[in-house]
Amino acid sequence: MKLKFGRKKSSEEKPKKQKSVVREWADAIIFAVIAATIIRWLFLEAFTIPTPSMERSLLVGDFLFVSKIHYGARTPKTPLQIPLTHQTIWGTDIPSYLNWIQLPQYRLPGFTKIKTNDVVVFNYPPEFEHPVDLKTNYIKRCIGTPGDKIEVKDTQVYINGTPLENPPKMQFRYYLITQEFINERVFRSHKISEYQRVQGGYAIMTTPETADELKNLTFIDDVIKMVMPNDQINPRIYPDASKYPWNEDFYGPLSVPTKGETIEINDESLTKYGDIILNYERWDDVKMEDGKLFIDGVQLNNYTFKQNYYFMMGDNRHNSEDSRFWGFVPEDHVVGKALFIWLSIDNTESILNKIRWSRLFSLIR
Asked: Full-prediction pTM beyond 0.90?
């Protein structure tokens, strides 16, 4: 015999009150915000390209998805933040966060590590006015991983003495010699978005292949790659132009620090790596004086790095603010791996031609 257990319905029991339309919409919006926040934190985040530092690999107006799971998502550092914002509230200059609470930051396990030639999104390291996770997002190509020795000779990057495979759409600055006025349509037909009229011709940004094509045009006398001489110093170069007389076309050699690596402390090592010990190794009390390093008031003769670092460069090599100018990217600043372009808009075109259809859902290489 089966027994059934239940309770008697009370005559006073009232039917459930239905939610109002406003309540249903509010619940749906709250759920959507929570779901979007979790997806954005753990899996994928949408970004847009605002500057030409990666052209032609990535174009201004490209909208792309960045994977958090490749390298592992970071745990939140700044919890007091309006969801789905970054530094400011949408359309305003009002900060979207409070830095009253700063949590220790960890990285969840990923299924791969950053490799040479990966296109990486990261937080701009020298932007110290914001917490790490809210610094401005940059996108560059990783050309140096922990332990690599970086050198640039006549614009060619070398890793550990071996020439690095160049991105297929890498650009440089060229001097286009001509006495003719060149119509904008000519530049657009050759996918040249950066050009400027100068004495005797034009200064343009383009690929070596396109430069060779331009040389064959009857109204162009010559196209010359504008490379800085080896003995010309760029005062803005990292780490210190007064001690390392390099420029963006002749740079290094410079080794990329790796977690657990120990260096001897002297004037040379502090010139190269003092900046990252001071700013990115998460010490509360660190000082450098006369080639000496003091942590928590104790002088150190050797130093062991606490995290990995990376060297980033833009594919538009003569129009990119990158590691050649502001130094290494700490591992805790890495946001994720750029995956694919889901939309691309050309704001210089008419309404009917604004969307670059050929770029939609193309993988980033």
From this structure: yes
Buried b / exposed e along 233-249 (16+ C-beta atoms within 10 A):
ebeebbbeeeebebbbb
Pick from 207, 53, 67: which is nearest to 139 by CA? Answer: 53
pLDDT tens-digit map of 174-211: 999 999 999 999 999 999 999 999 999 999 999 999 99
Asked whether the predicted pLDDT for residue 15 surpasses 70, the reply is: no
Q: Taking the CB of residue 295, how many other CB atoms lie within 10 A of it?
A: 16
- Asked if residue 236 is part of any domain, the answer here is no
Residue 336 CA to residue 38 CA, distance in Å, equals: 15
Task: Tell me how many domains the chain contains.
Answer: 3
Q: In the structure encoding, which two tokens stand for residue 134, read together? A: 């809210």
The answer to whether position 165 is within a domain reads: no
Domain with 279 in it: 260-306
* Beta carbons within 8 Å of 76's beta carbon, 6+ residues apart: 41, 103, 105, 133
Q: Whose CA is closest to 95, among 106, 86, 103?
A: 86
Q: Are residues 38 and 121 in the same domain?
A: yes
Tell me how far apart the alpha carbons of residues 310 and 276 are, in angstroms, rounded to a whole number: 12
Scanning the structure block, which residue is given the tokens 């007064």? Answer: 242
Measure the CA–CA gap between 51 and 319, rounded to whole angstroms. Answer: 10
In 3D space, the residue among 338, 149, 365 whose CA is nearest the CA of residue 257 turns out to be 149
Query: What are the b/e assignments for 12-50, b being 16+ CB within 10 Å?
Result: eeeeeeeeeeeeeeeeeeeeeeeeeeeebbeeebebebe
Residues 41 and 104 in one domain: yes
Taking Cα atoms as reference points, which of 193, 174, 181, 175 lies closest to residue 219?
181
Which strands form 172-177's sheet, in the order they lie side by side?
Answer: 195-198, 201-206, 172-177, 222-225
